[in-house]
């Protein structure tokens, strides 16, 4: 695409992307020209979108499968916010759950009509709304009064960081051996192996969320971890025919195409 840009267009696009952002790509292009840096940037963005689509489905599948297994293993309602004595969340998980609950309340509030929002004042301000209260404080107090907020609404706002943490060494006894190893029934797989692949997926998703390029060893690592999850999630032996593999087949086909395009572009320009 960038091969057909005029000099004024290249200058304008360079401004749109910003010098620091484009500089990342200028530094790795062989020609060190803005034209090639823009082309590499665009190939990287297309690749990132494809990776996010595949890993997003992996995250959703992991989240729902984890919740299903913990429902069965813990046998109590509300284990997320009120875990049994046998399960103690670390400070990181406690914070993540509280943050997700706040986000869930904010999401509920954003969908309310103005009349519904005003109706919350009776709960948020039993002695009346203070005069001169700032809009942000008013909204926060109203949101805090929203009740109930279901576990499902909170779970929807928990990130990949939370779910990959459940496979950490901290929860080897309380979660892995008790429930989560059922998600990876192949007995040759260890918790540490799975945690390593989930970490790779998390790190790349985090980089892409900040619009940072993924290439070289990072690209190979994320492709390996995607393949690992597809072949081993819910399967007693590695298979290309797992339910997860079939679920993400269209997105993975797109990813394969974008990987080929990106690698060809990268090899040509760097």
Observed structural traits:
Abi_system_AbiD/AbiF-like, mainly alpha, 270 residues, 14 helices, Abi-like protein, single chain
Q: Could you explain how this protein is built, in words?
A:
With 270 residues, the protein is mainly α. The protein has one domain. The protein contains 14 helices and no strands. α2 packs across α3 and α11 packs across α12. The radius of gyration is 23 Å and the shape is flat. The two termini are 17 Å apart. 24% of the residues are buried. The mean pLDDT is 96. It comes from Brucella oryzae. InterPro entries: Abi_system_AbiD/AbiF-like. This is Abi-like protein.
Instruction: State the order of secondary-structure elements, H for helix, E for strand.
Output: HHHHHHHHHHHHHH
Indicate the proportion of strand residues.
Answer: under 5%
How many domain units? 1
Uncertain parts: none
> How many strand elements?
0
Q: Tally the helices: what do you get?
A: 14
Radius of gyration: 23 Å
Determine the structural class based on helices, strands and strand pairing: mainly alpha
